[in-house]
Amino acid sequence: MPLLESPFAQLDLIRQPEQPNEPLQAFDAADEYLLNHLAEQQPAASTRVLVLNDSFGALAASLVGKVALTSSTDSFLAALALEKNLARNGLPFDAVTVIPASAPLLGPFDRVLIRVPKTLALLEEQLIRLQGKLAPGAQVVAAAMIKHLPRAAGELLERYVGPMQASLAVKKARLLIATPDGRPAVASPYPTRYRLDQPAIELLNHANVFCREGLDIGTRAFLPHLPSNLGQARVADLGCGNGVLAIASALNNPEAHYTLVDESFMAVQSAAQNWQAALAQREVTVRASDGLAGQEPQSLDVVLCNPPFHQQQVVGDFLAWRMFQQAREALVVGGALYIVGNRHLGYHSKLARLFRGVEQVAATPKFVILKARK
After folding, report:
1. Ranges of each domain in the chain
2. Does residue 28 register a pLDDT over 50?
3. Which residues lie closer than 8 Å to 90 by C-beta, 6 or more apart?
């Protein structure tokens, strides 16, 4: 893999989660462009720099020891990548203040470097949270590869920060440079809420939660077919999002024990709040993690999962396959993984390679609900 070279550092970087013969690198031309732009300004070691949405730590790792650095991300995997890449390059982890996107920022900041996220609601929420956190003379610079840069990103910068200028394209990357001009403070439209009829609950969704405006159609197909009569089973909602699968299951299984995991800090925050609203003080474990990577082997009886089919802009079944492997490891012998998936993804044959029995629980024209028994 090529090294990331910038005026600040030369780094050997890896992606998370790791996979053999990784075809993709852990940085791109937009990272390089941001670093070169900052270097031209010759920041002092005391310059307070905030990095947002640094996918695999390329920006933060480059700037360690060069500026006063804070990195904020909504991705547990991104935070893990930063930690691993710092260690890989012999850099001190405590030189970076890492803040989950679900937590408040502690300004003021002189420079803000943003990788434009796939979900523009996350960008909007982050820009709103910058209100009152920018030092005099601050600059906010957002970057993306042009093919992933929607016009709305520049509009959001102008609305919440100040006048914005788009740079020339370099290696198919572009910068959006905004100059703060003391815009009046705006209340955030997030979290959003929507109600379900069955079960009769209201779901709160922070800005980066998948399908925050309403229930996604895969989950809608899954809900009527969640397992019942689970007794005191230990159940995990893997990739829990706002927690709807676990909450619906828990309402029908009053004695079961639940663990909700997601790699999005905002998803975990939403799930915890939704569980408390629907199930009050009923005991639960909710955590941001790399799926079930931290789960004890053979410690679960049931895993519920609506697996993702992309990581940022990269589409594929790598993450789903990894989740299936994690579920198998965490389940007891005789335990079961229940999933919903698009018919065309062929999950039945993939699960059959890992589990001793796979059956179709239900189907719609678009989705299948499958049960895989260990």
Report:
1. 4-178, 192-373
2. yes
3. none
Per CATH, 4-178 and 192-373 having the same topology is answered yes
Residue pLDDT, tens place only, 85-116? 999 999 998 889 999 999 999 989 999 999 99
How many Å apart are CA 286 and CA 237, to the nearest integer?
A: 9
Q: What are the residues whose beta carbons fall under 8 Å from the beta carbon of 172, sequence distance 6 or more? A: 29, 145, 146, 147
Question: Which CATH code, of 3.30.70.20, 2.120.10.10, 3.40.50.150, 3.90.1150.10, is assigned to 192-373?
Answer: 3.40.50.150
Question: d(Cα 269, Cα 40) in Å, to the nearest integer?
Answer: 38
pTM of the model: 0.94
The DSSP secondary-structure symbol of 274 reads: H
CATH 3.40.50.150: does it fit domain 4-178? yes
Question: pLDDT tens for residues 185-226?
Answer: 899 999 999 999 999 999 999 999 988 888 999 999 999 999
Cα torsion at 296, 97, 271, 291 (round to 10°)?
A: -30
- Phi and psi at 191, nearest 5°, equal -75, 155
DSSP E strands in the chain: the ranges are: 4-5, 10-11, 48-52, 68-73, 96-100, 109-115, 134-145, 164-166, 173-178, 192-195, 202-205, 234-238, 257-262, 285-288, 300-305, 310-311, 314-315, 331-342, 357-363, 367-373
Residues 227-278: tens digit of each pLDDT:
999 999 999 999 999 999 999 999 999 999 999 999 999 999 999 999 999 9
Q: Answer yes or no: are the C-beta atoms of 317 and 345 closer than 8 Å.
A: yes
pLDDT of residue 346: 84
